[in-house]
Amino acid sequence: MTPGWQHGGVTTGIGLARAYYDDVVRPLLEAWRPGLPHAAARLGSGSDVLGLDDETSRDHDWGLRLTLLVDEPDVATVDAQLEATLPAEHRGLPTRFATTWEPVVRHRVEVATPRGFARSRLGLDPVTDLDAAGWLSLTGQSVLEVTAGAVFHDGPGELTAIRETLRWYPHDLWLHVLAAEWARVGQELPFVGRTGVRGDDAGSRVLTARLAGSLLRLGLLLERRWPPYPKWLGTAFAGTPSAAAAGPHLDRALAAGTWQERDAALGDACDALHERQRDVGLPALDGPATEPFFGRPSRGLRGLPEVLRDAAGDAVRGLPAAVEQWVDAVDVLMDGRRRVALTRAAVGEAPSVEPVETPEVVSTGSTDEAPGQASARACSSSKLPVTRKVMRRATETPWSPNRS
């Protein structure tokens, strides 16, 4: 019996997948094709891939799920062999069940090639397509669906190499994305006080929550950790050095009853993350991150984006931000092909939509659920009436707080 598949009385998806591979799938493969080159893992969608599943996660799309990666000529035959030989159940759970994205009862061993699986999540081939635009088309969640889960076996080593490639941005792009996130903060930070002065308490609270989300992402970026989609953003942030530094200030901002308290707490969070940026050896300003905004009784951001952009250099100057920093439509963020097309349009390239293997769902924004395939197809086939000029306006500086 494979150990480690129980946690607090609840079966964990990663432990269950490991037991399923060790006890069932691997013996079947060895009996059928001894020495078959393959990788086995629990990747893709599902809170268990992030190690965050609990009893609530078990109400849908949870169970005996496994990712099996083989050479292209073997994909169809391996899938058919598993369908023919897998037992009806293992450890009291069915091996065949329907999911929200495919309401058909069948086994849930996802069989693909390593690069094909990665394309289905990322929208591009990580071996050939990771130029600057390719990196900026990725969401943190799409990368985590390739890199965050457990690998039980990787004989050929191709999956391991892909995961290593996706470990983190190249340094100049890291600085560029950090600059873009600070710019997002700077664009709205003064509005917390401005709305408060006008008596718009609801508006001030909404802005505070938006800024807190940006600062959570910023903290994860400083720690070189891919931000997951919003449901798990705070969980991923917790426990990091950035959370230790800025977390209490963000808690204070979100609980504050007045705009003055929100403004002060957000400014303190910015200052704390700026210090963390200095601590990790990245370019920083002399002094704090914030200052009074044009003499008003509220805070504005100092020139942090510019410092980072200057350090990043000319190779990335003028590029758009990472796609999830300027697109918040879930159906777009979940569709790798649309993300790639939008990003390449933003840098002035002609958008092209390449065929992407979709064994489960086009790249994700959700870990507990995946949309129906028809919905994903509809999203991915939508035409993109976007010009370079419009895209640049949408991604560089939508507005300036100086205009308020």
Question: How does this structure look, described?
Answer:
The chain has helices at residues 13-32, 75-85, 114-122, 132-136, 140-147, 158-165, 171-197, 201-222, 233-237, 241-255, 259-279, 304-312, 330-333, 336-346, 373-381, 388-395, and strands spanning 6-7, 10-11, 39-42, 66-69, 89-90, 93-94, 96-97, 106-107, 109-112, 150-154, 290-292, 299-301. With 404 residues, the protein is an alpha+beta fold. It has a four-stranded mixed β-sheet with strand order 9-4-3-10, sandwiched between helices. Strands 1-2 form a two-stranded antiparallel ribbon. It is elongated, with a radius of gyration of 23 Å.
Q: Total helix count?
A: 16
Q: Which stretches are poorly predicted, pLDDT < 50 over at least 5 residues? A: 355-404
Overall strand count: 12
What kind of sheet is the major sheet?
4 strands, mixed
Measured as a percent range, the helix fraction is 40-55%
* Mean of all residue-level pLDDT scores: 87
> Given the helix and strand composition, which structural class is it?
alpha+beta
Q: H/E element string?
A: EEHEEHEEEEEHHHEHHHHHHEEHHHHH
Strand order of the largest sheet: 9-4-3-10
Radius of gyration: 23 Å
Distance between the termini: 65 Å
- Total individual domains: 2
In what range is the share of β-strand residues?
A: 5-15%
**Overall 3D form:** elongated
